[in-house]
């Protein structure tokens, strides 16, 4: 399917007034996967995306770390900043090579100010807590983010990979505009509890890794394209014990795409777009041709029967392997301590 010259449509994300392109651009792969891509090429890609109407750009201070925000800062120069909706994240870091999560007020403020400097801006449009700090009541973290909103350093607050109960507690302190979560044809566990909670509260949904980190684009060919240091090589779903079953899932999706006259990437993204106008997928890419293909997904129409067929291929038990390696499972959200425990310190 040829890329359409029509600009990406726009949607309301959440109920606090944020408007974004109906599809965003995840920028992590430009700096995070090995090796980092040439800076001039990535700036050109970002500019191409903005010209095509894809103005919702997603980054984080851990991407690099820090280098992805610096890259975005350079790309935003020359009047581009005024044309985009910029999202970044805090709270996920490595200390002596080990993963750590922080959501204490001092860290929240320091991280925000550091991101503002790297990005070369005075206000972040959407600022997410990247992962929930299980040691700090979510009310404390959101309380500091609320202060940053009042000070004009951020416009809207988001959460990433948060449980339904955490989302509710956070939203009671200050309206949460968006929740970022992994949602794709092969990552659908969020549909049971988290998606309904967001919709009940009027919170926008941002779907990261909507292409299964590339597997829903190219299937087993992805493995051969990864460098020796690429973090995706450690993903359980790409390990030999799971790969044979997951390849069959990809083959079924690819067969539907062939019948539709589109690519498997476009089909997977179209499935996300058909979930509702409160959902914005943010596929990442480092190539203009792939970007054009991804934008084409906005114009792929699926019937209810086609949606049901795709979902039958990725129902519970069909996709093998966890989303993350064991070490990253420590980042999964659970209930944070009650606010009273923090006040008593």
UniProtKB/TrEMBL annotation:
PANTHER family: AFLATOXIN B1 ALDEHYDE REDUCTASE, ALDO-KETO REDUCTASE YAKC [NADP(+)]. It holds the Pfam family Aldo_ket_red. Coiled coil: none annotated. One of its GO terms (molecular function) is oxidoreductase activity. One of its GO terms (cellular component) is cytoplasm. Keywords: NADP, Oxidoreductase. This is NADP-dependent oxidoreductase domain-containing protein. The gene is ga30117. Residues 27-312 form the NADP-dependent oxidoreductase domain. Belongs to the aldo/keto reductase family.
């Amino acid at each position: 399917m040829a890329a359409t010259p029509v600009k990406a449509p726009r949607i309301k994300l959440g109920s606090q007034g944020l408007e974004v392109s109906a599809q965003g651009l995840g920028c992590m792969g430009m700096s995070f996967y090995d090796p980092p891509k040439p800076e001039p090429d990535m700036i050109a890609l970002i500019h191409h995306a903005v010209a095509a109407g894809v103005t919702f750009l997603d980054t984080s201070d851990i991407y690099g770390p820090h280098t992805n925000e610096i890259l975005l800062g350079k790309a935003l120069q020359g009047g581009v900043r005024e044309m985009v909706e910029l999202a970044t994240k805090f709270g996920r870091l490595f200390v002596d090579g080990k993963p750590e999560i922080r959501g204490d007020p001092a860290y929240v403020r320091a991280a925000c100010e550091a991101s503002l400097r790297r990005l070369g801006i005075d206000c972040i449009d959407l600022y997410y807590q990247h992962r929930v700090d299980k040691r700090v009541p979510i009310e404390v973290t959101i309380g500091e983010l609320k202060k940053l909103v009042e000070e004009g350093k951020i416009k809207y607050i988001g959460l990433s990979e948060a449980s339904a109960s955490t989302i509710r507690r956070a939203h009671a302190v200050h309206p949460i505009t968006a929740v970022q979560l992994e949602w794709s044809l092969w990552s659908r566990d969020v549909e049971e509890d988290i998606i309904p909670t967001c919709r009940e509260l009027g919170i926008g949904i941002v779907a990261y890794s909507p292409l299964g980190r590339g597997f829903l684009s190219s299937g087993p060919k992805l493995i051969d394209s990864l460098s020796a240091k690429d973090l995706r090589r450690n993903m359980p779903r790409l390990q030999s014990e799971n790969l044979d079953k997951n390849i069959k899932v990809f083959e079924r999706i690819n067969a539907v795409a062939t019948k539709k006259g589109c690519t498997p990437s476009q089909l997977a993204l179209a499935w996300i777009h058909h979930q509702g106008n409160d959902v914005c997928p943010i596929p990442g890419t480092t190539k203009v041709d792939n970007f054009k293909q991804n934008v084409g997904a906005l114009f792929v129409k699926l019937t209810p029967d086609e949606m049901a067929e795709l979902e039958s291929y990725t129902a519970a038990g069909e996709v093998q392997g966890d989303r993350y390696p064991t070490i990253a499972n420590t980042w999964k959200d659970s209930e944070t301590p009650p606010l009273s425990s923090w006040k008593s310190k």
